[in-house]
Amino acid sequence: MPADIKTTTADARITAAEPRASSPELRAQDSRDEILKAATGLFANRGFHETSMSEVAKAASVSKALIFWHFKTKEDLFMAVLSGLLEPYFIDFTEEAGALDEKAQIIRLIELYLLFVRDNAGSIRFFVAQLLHDERPSDGLANQVMQLYDGYRTLLVDLIGRAQNNFVCIRDFPPQAVASMLLATLNGLLIGFLFAADQAVQVESAVSMIRQWLFHDGPQVGLPPSL
Amino acid sequence: MPADIKTTTADARITAAEPRASSPELRAQDSRDEILKAATGLFANRGFHETSMSEVAKAASVSKALIFWHFKTKEDLFMAVLSGLLEPYFIDFTEEAGALDEKAQIIRLIELYLLFVRDNAGSIRFFVAQLLHDERPSDGLANQVMQLYDGYRTLLVDLIGRAQNNFVCIRDFPPQAVASMLLATLNGLLIGFLFAADQAVQVESAVSMIRQWLFHDGPQVGLPPSL
DNA sequence: ATGCCTATTGACCGCTAGGTTAGGGCAAGC
DNA sequence: GCTTGCCCTAACCTAGCGGTCAATAGGCAT
What we know:
By secondary structure, the first copy, chain A, is an all-alpha fold. Chain A is 64% helix and 0% strand. In chain A, α1 (24-46) packs across α4, α2 (53-60) crosses α3 and α6 (102-119) runs parallel beside α9 (175-195). Chain B binds a DNA duplex through α1 and α3.
């Protein structure tokens, strides 16, 4: 009989069903994925500190020790989750819209931004919370996100500069300022998304206003009806 | 000799200096304030779950038990901190700018927003993180903030509507849409503030662009040089 | 002086957290 | 058939958590 009966973990895992892969490596990959999946959901919904490893273990139908076998610490698991979440954030814009003129490219960039925000509101919410929360600059996450953001910004500055040279875009301000302004507006729409999804109807008119401001366009349809 | 020597709290408080108030009530008020001050700093910098009551106690130079004498639970303390932080958010705009015309009032509102953001970036950061983090609608905090936000928005819609009637403001879109757009842009500038304070130089040109968009103003100085 | 009342404390408790460890199951190579 | 090495687990450990409590110090009215 054990000397210490503190541990009263119910551990009501489903041991039947789901025939595991036979090969050790496959089994390992399987369990690793399951853990990552469970951890992603829990971390995203409740944050880092409010999620315990035991919860992750239960959600993944796996023993807690196995998590520590796959990931050395809780932070390790968290980082793995983060990089997994960041993957869909990398888009290649240059290939997609090389043939369009500057104005169309700018509009397409705005579209992509808003579509992306709509489809990834959950993880964006998670990332923003994470970025706001941490103070440490050595995070890596902040750097990655900033890099992404700067890429988008650089693209915009370049496009706006060329559009200004072609006289299709407002020329009262330098391209950097216009791009910053546009990005600020998009970010504002983003946080509108994050806090109240029912404001999505306003996006159309917002885009219309952006077009009017940037290109002196009259009100018109600029986005696919899906938005 | 005690049977349990787990508690090894160093408790290196400064017992000298700082002559406490003599009256019991004053002493109580004193310690309560000290606790609130310490808790505010810790909660704001590290969040709710990452801050322990022992840390608060040490930061306030007070025993942990005293905190629980003043505040029944940790949540209680947190709520007290929250309402304390929310206080400076209530401004009275109507008194201040009753004599200005609509355009000047709108510009003044934008100024107030940006000045406020600049001066309260820390607590705003805290609130946004908190709002992003919680899912529960019974929070109270979310309601308070939203109420504040809606007040500002209503004021803007009203002002813009009147400005449109006087033909001093763009009339291509309904006042609600224009106000939403303006708010989104301001919020975007806000999160620029939160993530990179060095972008503050852009605010001036941003305001200039907003003026151009709203009133077809040419580039000009719209904010006090302090911004 | 005394007894009261409130502000304050150190010691303590139950519990859960992240993390460890000793070992069991099991496919693969000899 | 036995060892080897990888997955995986139950049980365990310690630190620290939020929270409680009996005991006090010390101003105050009597």
